[in-house]
Amino acid sequence: MWTVVYLAKNKRMADKISSLMSQEGVLVKVQPVSKNTGDEDSYYEILVLESEVEEAHNILYELGY
Q: Is the whole model's pTM more than 0.85, yes or no?
């Protein structure tokens, strides 16, 4: 099951966080909260597998998010 671990302000930030987590071996999925706005005007959910939530939170903490 996928679990939201972070809400990014825009697509650029979501892609950056997704990339950093992927480099650490965490499987990541990014999806927009709303489909009616542009990339820079929408929030994006960062989702990881339920089994990797703790690791994802540790990575976010280390990155300062």
A: yes
